[in-house]
Amino acid sequence: MSIPARLPGFRSGANRCTALRGEGGLLLNGEADRFADELGHRDYVSGEMWKQKEANKWPIRLVLNSKASKVLDFHTRHYSGRGLMKKMSGKELAKEIGCSEDKLEKTFSKYNAIADGKEKDPFGKKFFHNLPFNIDDTFHVAVMEPVLHFTMGGIEINDKAEVLNSDGKPFESLYACGELAGGVHGANRLGGSSLLGCVVYGRVAGSSASQYLFQKVITGGISTASQRLGQISLHIDPSTHGKISVEWADGSNASSDSNYSSSVGDKKQEQQSQKSVAPVMSANADSKDPGKVTKPNDPVEFKVPEKEYSMEEVQKHNKKDDLWIVVKGVVLDVTNWLDEHPGGPQALFSHMGKDATEGMSSLPAFVDRTVLTNRCRIRDAAR
Fold first, then answer.
1. Disulfide: which of 177, 257, 352, 378 matches 201 by Cβ 3.0-4.6 Å?
2. Of these residues, 16, 34, 42, 82, which one is catalytic?
3. Among this protein's residues, is 189 annotated catalytic?
4. 3-state DSSP: the chain helix, strand, coil percent, rounded to 5?
5. All domains of the chain, ordered by start, with CATH?
6. Model's pTM, two decimal places?
7. Tell me: the pLDDT tens digits for 179-233?
8. Residue 156, SS3 per DSSP
């Protein structure tokens, strides 16, 4: 289990990378106390967080001091832009937690003493980064809670993704991958390997299954074309064994049975002669069938409109039903795109009538150019 963030009003949280804890982030409960080794495994840390909830000491906050924030600049800007992290002073942090400044300073001082080797950490933490913590510093703070996003353990498989029985031998033609499979992560999986478990073993399982089927066709004892056709027909329609109907492009059909007698007729399927390598969807194409369009659509070059708007004009469009933002000098009218925004509407509300370039710069280049500009009305912005 990892440590994601989820705030009220957000459609979903964000899965926080372990680096936030690894670079010295502190986890504080609702009384400004540490309660775990911040560098512990995710299942351990999540379990300790649940204990705090049972003790009525939520919410849990992740606190990064200025040194850690500087190292994690990309992450802090990204999460702050989505409204999942706030920058504040030590006094503001104490006020948000609901404790006194002395209490917070006491927690920081105790942690600094542990890091200096003057005291033993009650939670067994051995590695410390980006010290010291001081209430006069500035901090990036996020509310945290555990969220189950990957389940380890499951059906045991081997290196070919074959499912193993109780004797450790593979079942014939049975494969598993992803969260369904077990035996590939050890006692506790490495961070980031959940996706690899799905993708890599998905490919392994597919390869093993196709090899099995290919060998079955070669060695399955099917010696004649009619027998092979009968086998295929069972996969297509078990209720009509030995018969296959094929619908041709012009609506006529040809049929074959297990005696391998066919009546195709004089009709011939139209041949595709297009230049593109994929179906082309276009109202102006030379065929209604996207598979027979002879040439692809002409590429459309991205152009910024000539009309310019000042930032003063942009700032006027700062309502939910009239929302403009600026990204890299281009004004985007995202009013009708709020529900489709991957980060939820709140991430856009925080930039209403403002320049959102810094917040959006953490997105891949193809996202802010292709997704935003293709889905929003575009205007050029004069600085």
1. 177
2. 42
3. no
4. 35, 20, 45
5. 4-144 (3.90.700.10), 155-219 (no CATH), 222-246+255-261 (no CATH), 308-382 (3.10.120.10)
6. 0.55
7. 888 877 777 766 667 777 778 888 999 999 999 988 887 776 555 566 666 656 5
8. strand
